[in-house]
Design a protein that fits this description.
Low-confidence stretches: 1-62
Mean pLDDT: 75
Oligomer: single chain
Order of helices and strands: HEEEEEEEEEEEEE
Structural class: mainly beta
Number of strands: 13
Shape: elongated
Strand content: over 45%
Length: 174
C-alpha cells in the first residue's frame, strides 16, 4: 500500500513541476459556459474570473472558509500540439508544504497530464495556466474534459499529497 502511495505521490509531483508549466493570466479564456454543480458559484465571477470582493476575511460571502479551484470553459490547441488549460484558484495556507495546481486533459479515450503550476496560498484569488506539448496522437479542437487538482505536498522524508480541492469540467478546445 505504501509503495503505491509513494508512486502516486511521485507521479503527481512530476506532473506538477513539468518544465513547460507556467503561472500567469489566461487572457482570451471565458467561463460563461461553466458546468453546473461546481462548489464555486457564478455570483463570484467577474469577466470570467472569481473576484476577491466575494471573499471577506478569508470567507466566501456566504460565510464558508475554503480553498477553491475552477477550470475555464475553453482551452487551446496550437499548431505545434501545445495544449493550454487555465482557471482560477484560491488557497489559504502553504505552511505545511508547497501547493500545486495540476490538470489532466481527457478527450475520447486519451488522457494526458497537462503541466502543473505552483500555487500562491495567500487567501487571494489567482489564475493558473498549464501548458504541455501533447502529440501521438495530438489533441484536436472540440469537446474535452479537464480534471484539475489543488494539491499540497507535505510530510518529512518523502512528501505525501494532500488534496485541497478538485474540479472536473467539460471544456471546449479551440
Amino acid at each position: 500500500m505504501r509503495v503505491r502511495l509513494v508512486l502516486a505521490a511521485a507521479a503527481l509531483l512530476t506532473a506538477a513541476v513539468a518544465p513547460l508549466a507556467h503561472a500567469g493570466g489566461a487572457d482570451g479564456h471565458h467561463t460563461a459556459d461553466r458546468p453546473t454543480g461546481s462548489h464555486l458559484h457564478d455570483s463570484n465571477l467577474r469577466d470570467g474570473r472569481f473576484t476577491d470582493s466575494h471573499f471577506t476575511d478569508g470567507h466566501f460571502t456566504d460565510g464558508h472558509f475554503t480553498d477553491g479551484l475552477f477550470v475555464d470553459a475553453y482551452g487551446t490547441v496550437a499548431d505545434d500540439s501545445t495544449v493550454t488549460l487555465s482557471g482560477t484558484y484560491r488557497c489559504l495556507d502553504d505552511s505545511a508544504g508547497p501547493v500545486f495546481v495540476s490538470s489532466t486533459l481527457v478527450q475520447g479515450d486519451r488522457s494526458t497530464g497537462i503541466g502543473g503550476t505552483r500555487a500562491v496560498c495567500d487567501g487571494h484569488l489567482h489564475t493558473w495556466t498549464n501548458s504541455s506539448v501533447a502529440k501521438d496522437p495530438a489533441y484536436v479542437p472540440g469537446a474535452a474534459r479537464v480534471e484539475a487538482t489543488l494539491m499540497q505536498l507535505s510530510g518529512t522524508g518523502l512528501p505525501l499529497p494532500r488534496f485541497l480541492a478538485t474540479e472536473k469540467a467539460d471544456v471546449e478546445l479551440r
